[in-house]
Amino acid sequence: MVIANAAGAAASMAFSAAGLLSPGLALSGGADQVTPLADLYAQLYAARALPLGAVLLHQLLISRTGRGLTPLLLVGGAVQVADAAIGVSSHNPGMVVGGTVLAALHLGLAARLARSAHGIGPTGIPVPGAA
């Protein structure tokens, strides 16, 4: 699940960078629909997605201490839920699917980490001697 979350964070960063370089990629009308506001949106999205993704990748792949990972996954999951909602309102199926899948990955791992921190095993049964 860690690798899937890391891949999701990397994919989110890649889509953000691609949108920053070519904002028309995220628009149903393509490059013909790029306005100054669309360009601004791509910049704002990158300002959020790139640092959040980088910190998430660091925690998942390098730090791996678990300290701070659960809250970071919750924030990442909330951001992806918002992205999916924006996708619904803008009729962008890619954002809906991508945001939903990444939200499930981030929130699922956060729940798993929270359970294990409270001595609850992956089946939901308390682990003897864990606290």
Structure description:
- The chain is an all-alpha fold and 131 residues long.
- It is 72% helix and 0% strand.
- It is built from four helices and no strands.
- The protein is elongated.
- The two termini are 23 Å apart.
- Kindly report how far apart the N and C termini lie: 23 Å
Oligomer: single chain
Q: Characterize the largest beta sheet: strand count, sense, and whether it forms a barrel.
A: none
- Structural class given helices, strands, pairing? mainly alpha
Shape: elongated
Please give the share of residues in helix: over 70%
What is the CA-atom radius of gyration, in angstroms? Answer: 17 Å
Unreliable stretches, pLDDT < 50, 5 or more residues? Answer: none
Number of helices: 4
Secondary structure topology:
Elements: H1 2-21, H2 36-63, H3 69-89, H4 93-117
Helix pairs in contact: 1-2, 1-4, 2-3, 3-4
Q: What can be said about this structure in brief?
A:
The chain contains 4 helices and no strands. It is mainly α and 131 residues long.
Key words describing this protein structure:
131 residues; mainly alpha; 4 helices
